[in-house]
Amino acid sequence: MKLQLRQLTFSLALVLAGCTSGTVGIPPPIDRLYFPTGIAHVDVPGKTEGVLFVANANFDKRYASGSVVALPLDTLGLPVLGATTAGVVELPELKLDASQSVQIASFSGELAVQPVSPASYRIYVPTRSEGMNVYRALATIDASGTPSLACINGSSGQDCTATGASLSPREFERTDAGVPRAPSPYGVSVASRTCTVADDCCATGSTDCGRTCASGQCVGTDGQPYADLWVTHLQQADSPLLSNLNFRGYLVRLDSDAFTVSEQSFINIGSGATNSVAVAGSWVYATGRVLSPAPNLLRIVNRDGVVASTSLEAYFRVSDARGITLSSDGKRMFIVGRAPDTLLIANITETGGIPVLTFVRGVSLPDAPNEVRVIARPGRGDLVAVTCTSGGAVVLYDDDVGDLVSLLTGVGVQPFGLAVDVRGSAARIFVSNFGDGRIAVIDVADLNRPQGARVVAQLGPQQLCLTRGASSPGCLASEVTP
Description:
Elements: H1 2-21, E1 36-42, E2 51-56, E3 66-72, E4 89-91, E5 101-104, E6 112-117, E7 120-126, E8 133-141, E9 147-151, E10 165-166, H2 170-173, E11 185-192, E12 212-214, E13 217-219, E14 227-233, E15 249-255, E16 266-270, E17 274-280, E18 283-288, E19 298-302, E20 307-309, E21 320-326, E22 332-338, E23 342-351, E24 354-364, E25 369-375, E26 383-388, E27 393-398, E28 403-408, E29 415-423, E30 426-433, E31 438-444, E32 454-459, H3 464-467, H4 473-476
Parallel strand pairs: 4-32
Antiparallel strand pairs: 1-2, 2-3, 3-5, 6-7, 7-8, 8-9, 8-10, 11-14, 12-13, 14-15, 15-16, 17-18, 18-19, 19-20, 21-22, 22-23, 23-24, 25-26, 26-27, 27-28, 29-30, 30-31, 31-32
């Protein structure tokens, strides 16, 4: 009996040691993307391609954490925008070094960028892993166009996992009510705050908060441009915690300088969780996730906590609103929804300083639309790009035509996020493929002829050999070594 017990104890120790020294401790890779989600593009003076920021969700938790990386696109060998190429160019080498990646928690959502100087940006990413944290990192781009990333909030090095702001703080969870909290933070938008006097940069009704007003722009207590950060969450909060009762949703606002969470950070928007958020002036638009019998598709919120419904669902009912964006002139809104899969278009006017939305049309989309981005065309209506995750496609809507004008298939496995680089009368679109771990590059050589859009490149090695196994059809079909 004693021998058997010792053997069992030894076996258990091996299992525990394997967990400790294996998956739990493996840092996220810098030679590949892994379940990429939110992405954003910035221009770099003197460079052609710029820099692409990518959040990696680490969805199966193969690695110890998720990450954010900064891809220096000019080093990757992308084809010239508008050039004729035979087929899709495979560019598996990302050419990243450790300074171009920071660690965050797993299950990242969207990604937002705040310019703080001509060569400096703050990156914001919500995550749905332990702690339900929102992270920020500082990106700097040197004179040669090389980006680097660093943690903010007192952390040194590249590990930001301890620096997030939790949207489900323990001190709130442990109260009798169990709220406010925002489980599963996902969508994010950041907007620099304008001002005429310093008090415009403070909370409503407060003065002398330490922020200043310079050239119409609020400056935070950290000496950097001040912005409001808005975050959504995919699950409603019950009250008390785990009671499955009294569900409600919140829109969370954080200060870019303090970056701390308090009860005042949570704006109660009533029943229904939220997906994505767009900012126009002092008003914020948040799309609503699925809710029976009918969702609140879009709610309007301001910094003072005023909440209003647009009642769009009374004109066109979809069960689940996802991505949202504003037209280049701010007079239209584009929302993608599911069940049915639809692009919703609405006009925006103001009555007494309050936005009023008027439904225009709904356009059918391929399966499971997710994100939407506007591509401005001076003198013409916007183009609108939409990722369709289950359909494996990206579509382009032409607001002059009032319908889809381009359908691109073969984009990748589960197209997710979108970023756009507009160059005069042409544009390059970047698409994060959540399922195969790559970034698809789509060129629109002539924005007046969007029908000519095509996939020209794939960035990074595909991940199907890791996620589905070496004998899977997806792995066997790839020429890229896992």
